[in-house]
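Continued from yesterday's entry.
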Amino acid sequence: MENTKEIKPHSLDECTKSILPVRDALEVLSGKWKLPIIISLMFGNKRFSQIAKEIPGITDKMLSKELRELESNDLVKRTVYDSIPVVVEYSLTEYGHSLKIVIKTLRDWGVAHRKRMMAPVE
């Protein structure tokens, strides 16, 4: 006899409870630039110009906008040092660092997907 698992019907409520938090996460992290900015800051605190150099194609205006949004979602911290000239540094918050496992999982999936799509067709 085959070992098959019975497929249990799921309620609409269970489905909704899965969709809503994923939608919330995507709303905070969506777009072309947020994850690259977070990844850049995972490698250490940086000044604006350092982040801009590490992310090819991002404009200063877009970087500024995305940093403000990440800051408003408590993922990035902006620190202004009282020096001459004034130095502004960006870092990930502890909450921002909680995305490390999500980003690693996305990276691993992306590597596997790229290999799959580039594999010779049999």
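--- second protein ---
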Amino acid sequence: MTTERVFNKKLTRLDFKFGDINWEKATIKQYELEKDERIWRIFLNGYAKNGFVVFDEELLPREELLKALEELKPEVVGEKKLTVQELIDESMSWNNVYGKV
């Protein structure tokens, strides 16, 4: 894959609210899922009972991801399509972090 093709690859970000989660369940599940190479970014917050997963939907079907999160009783509260380049830009820029507060 050329660099340009990688940067333009489409990813999906799902934002969640969880019905049955705590810090321990969140930590364990996040560790399990971040070992999956089809997942690009994951953050599960057991205290606020929310989180997000950025993944490659071509390789990891949404249903499979939701099944993996099933025990936490996930509710999808947001969805966004983004490219790898956008994910990198959002990750590196403090303006994106502070601009959304």
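Residues 1 and 7 are 10 Å apart (CA to CA). The helical segments are 3-7, 23-34, 62-69, 84-92, 94-99. Will compare against the first tomorrow.
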